[in-house]
Structures are given as structure tokens and as C-alpha cells.
Amino acid sequence: MKRFAIATLLAAFVCAPSLGWAETPGARSTAVGDTIARQSAVPAPVESRGEADDYAAREAAAPALGAFAGGGGGIYIGGSALVVILLVIIIVILV
Fold first, then answer.
1. Got the DSSP string for 15-45?
2. How far apart are CA 55 and CA 33, in angstroms?
3. CA separation, residue 46 to residues 39, 43, 52, 55, 77 (Å)
4. How far apart are CA 35 and CA 53, in angstroms?
5. pLDDT, tens digit, for every residue of 27-78?
């Protein structure tokens, strides 16, 4: 019974992307070019001098931060690694 539930869950995950792309027969589709009006993109003005002055002021306000050295040690486990570990544990428990 457990194997059937696992197989059903696996099939649902595998088929989910194809179900999301499914379309109804006879549905009227419109072309993308017909619905979107073309607009020219105008680039925003760049304020490089103001940003440089801002960073210089921040650096002058905190000179001790210039001596920062990274690599303080530690193990960081991301969400994906945690999910993989939990899946392995669940599979080992069920089998």
C-alpha cells in the first residue's frame, strides 16, 4: 500500500508540468504581437558621481570595516541540501 502511495505521488510530480501546459481543444489563441503595443525603452540617467561620493562617505565613516577578513568558519546548510537529506531519510525509513 505504501509503495502504491509513493508511486502515485511520484507520478503526480512528474505529470504536473505537462498538466500546467495543457490547453483546451478549440480554444481561441491570440498572437502576442496583436495584444502588446511596442514602446521604446528610454534608459534611466546614470548618477555615477553621486554614488561614488556616497560610498566614499560611508567608507570614511567606518574605517574599521576595512580590516574585515572573511572566512570565519562554519558549515552552512541550504534549503536544497536539507530537502535532499530529508528525502533520503524518508526513503530509508519506508524501505
1. HHHHHHT---TT-----HHHH-------PPP
2. 44
3. 21, 9, 12, 15, 39
4. 45
5. 555 555 555 556 666 666 666 677 888 888 888 888 888 887 777 777 788 8
